[in-house]
C-alpha cells in the first residue's frame, strides 16, 4: 500500500436507536460524540436510523405485497408471446 493515501480506520461504535442495539466495528467514519464501551474504553459513536437489527429484511418481518395480483395483471396485459426465432436467421 502506498503511504498517505488511505483513510485511517479505527474502532467505532454504531448505535441503532430504533432497535436499542450497539455494535463495535472498524470504520473510517468519525464522530465528535463518544461512548464508553463494555471493555471500559471510550470510542466514537455514530447513531444510525436502521441497521441489520431493525431492518425488516434481516428481522424476518418483511412481506411480499402482491395483493392486487399485479403479476397476473402484467401477464394478461403483456402476455403475448413473441414468434419463435430460427437459430439460423
Task: Give a short synopsis of this structure.
Part of the 50S ribosomal subunit. This protein is α+β, with helices and mostly antiparallel strands and 89 residues long.
Structural summary, described in words:
This protein has 89 residues and is α+β, with helices and mostly antiparallel strands. It has one domain (10-78). The protein is 15% helix and 27% strand. Strands 2-1-4-3 form a 4-stranded mixed beta sheet, with no helix packed on it. A hairpin with a 4-residue loop joins strand 1 (10-16) and strand 2 (21-27). It is elongated. The N and C termini lie far apart (53 Å).
The radius of gyration is 25 Å
Distance between the termini: 53 Å
Largest sheet: 4 strands, mixed
* Overall geometric form: elongated
What's the structural domain tally?
1
Count up the helices.
2
Structural class: alpha+beta
Order of helices and strands: EEEEHH
Strand content: 25-35%
Low-confidence stretches: none
Salient structural properties:
89 residues, alpha+beta, four-stranded mixed beta sheet, elongated
Write the layout of secondary structure elements.
Blueprint: E1 10-16, E2 21-27, E3 34-36, E4 42-48, H1 56-59, H2 70-78
Parallel strand pairs: 1-4
Antiparallel strand pairs: 1-2, 3-4
Amino acid at each position: 500500500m502506498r503511504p498517505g493515501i488511505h483513510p485511517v480506520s479505527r474502532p467505532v461504535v454504531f448505535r441503532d436507536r430504533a432497535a436499542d442495539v450497539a455494535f463495535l466495528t472498524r470504520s473510517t467514519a468519525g464522530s465528535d460524540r463518544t461512548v464508553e464501551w463494555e471493555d471500559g474504553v471510550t470510542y466514537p459513536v455514530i447513531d444510525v436510523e436502521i441497521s441489520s437489527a431493525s431492518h425488516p429484511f434481516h428481522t424476518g418481518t418483511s412481506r411480499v405485497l402482491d395483493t392486487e395480483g399485479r403479476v397476473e395483471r402484467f401477464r394478461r396485459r403483456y402476455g403475448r408471446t413473441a414468434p419463435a426465432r430460427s437459430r439460423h436467421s
